[in-house]
Every structure is written in C-alpha cells, then in structure tokens.
Automatic annotation (TrEMBL):
The lineage of its organism: Eukaryota, Viridiplantae, Streptophyta, Embryophyta, Tracheophyta. It holds the Pfam family Ras. This is Uncharacterized protein. It comes from Solanum verrucosum. The keyword Nucleotide-binding applies. InterPro entries: P-loop_NTPase, Small_GTPase. It comes from the Eukaryota. Keywords: Nucleotide-binding. PANTHER family: PTHR47978.
Amino acid sequence: MSSSPATIPTSANVFSSSLANKDSMEDLVALKISLLGDYHIGKTSFLTKYVGKEKGEEGFSTTGLNHMDKTLCVSGARISYNIWEVEGDVSHIPVACKDSVAMLFMFDLTSRCTLNSVISWYQQARKWNQTAIPVLIGTKFDDFAQLPLHVQWTIALQARAYAKALNATLFFSSSAYNINVNKIFKFITAKIFNLPWTLERNLTIGEPIIDY
C-alpha cells in the first residue's frame, strides 16, 4: 500500500463520493480483494455490477481468473480496489488470496451444494491468507425470494451457521436488482479503515439477510 489507513478522514459522509479524479489527488491506497466460490454462482455478475459494465470490460482475465479495478474517492482519499475473482478452480486461490485485505466467499442461494462448498473454499484460502476479513455472500436473492418460505428459512439458517463458523459477516445479494452489492464494499471499507458507518442486521425471512 502506498498510504497508511490513518490518512483517511472519518467524517460522517465518507461514502458520499463516487469515482475519484485521478488528476486532483496524489495518494492512492490500493486494496486487494478476493472473490471465491463455485462455478456459475454469479461472481462475475456481482463484480461487474459493482465496478460498472464499462470498467468491467476494461478488466482482464486469464484461465480461471478475472481481475477488475475500481477507484473511489472517500473523503478526499483515493482508494483503488483490485478485485480478483477465482472462476471456480481452487488451484488459483494462492494468486487471488495472497495479500488480500478481504475475501468474499460466495454461493448461489438457490443451490445448497454451492453453500456446502464454502467451508472448503475457506479452508483452502486461509492457507494463503490468515488475516483478510471474511465475508459470506449469497447471490441471486431475486430467484431465492421466489422459493417457498420454509426452503428460504432452511437455507438462511444454514448460511447463518456457516457465517458464524467462519467468523464472517453474511449478506444476501442480487446483482440483477443491485441488492446489497455496494453495501458489501462499503462494509469492507468501513471495517478496514475503522470508519463511522453502521451496518443494520436484517434477519427477516423473505428479505435480504444481513447478519454479523
């Protein structure tokens, strides 16, 4: 990193700005974030929703890995998120996870087998990074919300148990409807830099769960 976290102000409106003006600021804090999970669970859609379609097209990919950047202005400080997505092959975990400040473990809310895989992804990732903030993310909430309530309850209960086991904050999200996508990265930023931002828990079945 090129700047200490202490250089970032902690005002109440820390998240009010969007993309940074690269010519108007000198310091850049670069943060690496990893996205992990099985194939076809919506990781790329989630990432593209966050960075924007145009920025997503500027990213690069190699076999099994996608990489996209997003630079934010947070109360006068420039933060560059370097986000690495593992498409589904655990052999790419070392490259994606080394030096990451946060690791996002993702699963498809409509596919319990992808939730069952989260523990293995976590165990593999922790071999290469023991300090990154863990976040557990259930994708495709818009599809999940169409399931019977008793099915939603069962999956939500399991996801909350897994999040507790991983000491991770849990979010249910939808890229299609931009549910909790930006909020997840706000949470990560606030956590890393100890910013004054409150995350509200939501445990209501049928709504996008947030638990910590």
